[in-house]
Amino acid sequence: MFTVRVRFAPSPTGALHIGGLRTALYNYLYARQQGGTFVLRSEDTDQKRYVPGAEEYILESLNWAGITPDEGPGIGGDYGPYRQSERRDTYRKYTQQLLDAGQAYYAFDTEAELEQRRADEKAAGNHTFRYDASTREGMRNSLSLGKEETQRLRDRNTPYVVRLRVDPGQTIHIRDIVRGDVAFQSEEVDDKVLMKADGLPTYHLANVVDDHLMEISHVIRGEEWLPSTALHVLLYRAFGWEKTMPEFAHLPLLLKPNGKGKLSKRDGEKLGIPVFALDFREAGFLPAATINFLAFLGWNPGTEQEIFSLPQLVEAFDLDRINKSGAQYDFEKARWYNQQYLIASADEELAPLVRQQFADHGQSITPAQATRIAGLLKERVHTLDEFYPQGRYLTERVGITDEKMARKKWKPEQRPAFEELRDRLAELPDWEASKIKAATVAFMKERGLSFGAVLPVLRLAVSGTTNGPDAFAILETVGQEETVARLGLGYDVMDSL
Ligand code: GLU
Question: Which of 60, 65, 297, 384 has its CA 20 to 30 A from that of 22?
Answer without folding.
Answer: 384
